[in-house]
């Protein structure tokens, strides 16, 4: 069922229509996993012309709510259509064989960066099709990279690393586009159960999830991901070019503010250093950064857990690390790495020579999706903040990769963190 808001004499009615008009300007069909863009069909999430829509939800992930606020506040004219002049990608990515495989990619639109090109005919007919992926260039300045140059671990080459210590990158922003039958299959649940849970757990936000089983694509109101590529993006798809990669989940407190209770920023910047070194040696580097704050539990839950950890009897200790999260959140983790490899397949990746991650969940998801992993690179001991030993030792005991010793229960209970003072 679709809805339209009609204003008349100050009264506003929400008209629910079960089947928007089809025909020449009706909703185009989506054949997910089709080998070409023309056969797949465009993803149309516009709120301007409801009869064109072929998805549940709308663009911009969680920011779609701000767009609604801007319309409500009168700052944005309802029906504004994006002018896409000069917005096309700086780097050509794909198409790759994985784009036509409905088992390999279920949570992003592989054609999302090139809609202006591949769906030019639809656009000319008046369809409001928006990119869900944007590709641009940047220079990034990081104090850790500057330090690596000062300590001569990295050298300026004028290509990957410039005289001003900045690194040259291609960066890619990606919004989530879920093909519900494929997402359900990834988690071994029925599509009907997935739709019902999404409907109920968002407080009934998207009735079409349960009333329109014929619409298979959902633009969920969640954060997306950002890629930082060091070297030539097309080399990512060449298994003969050494690929150094980290898949990193957002941790704002550490990544941006340097909070020392975890290893997130030190591991991220170590991975960037490895990516730069790899690209300078003729390889290519990739950081895939997902907006999954606090294991996708959110920052409020995360900070509640920090307090619970530090106030428990015996103080913050590695043997109770996962238990305290489970007490507050009900689970240890909600990141669902099952969907994470999609972006790697979008990039055409078949082999990661150096995976800068110790996570067994990430490793299992990547290799389980058919991507070969060579070496696994752990965080150097000297980069682990003192207060983050609780986290890293608990994770190693739970199965995270290490080339050192795995702590037993007695050792784990002895790893203590700082108090709240
Ligand atoms: Zn962290």
UniProtKB/TrEMBL annotation:
Residues 13-201 form the GTP cyclohydrolase N-terminal domain. Residues 1-25 are annotated as: Disordered. It comes from the Bacteria. One of its GO terms (biological process) is riboflavin biosynthetic process. Keywords: GTP-binding, Hydrolase, Nucleotide-binding. It is an enzyme of class 3 (hydrolase). It holds the Pfam family GTP_cyclohydro2. Signal peptide: none annotated. Residues 234-377 form the GTP cyclohydrolase II domain. Its EC number is 3.5.4.25. InterPro entries: GTP_CH_N (IPR022163), GTP_cyclohydro_II (IPR032677), RibA (IPR000926), RibA-like_sf (IPR036144). GO terms for molecular function: GTP binding; GTP cyclohydrolase II activity. The keyword Lyase does not apply. Transmembrane segments: none annotated. This is GTP cyclohydrolase II.
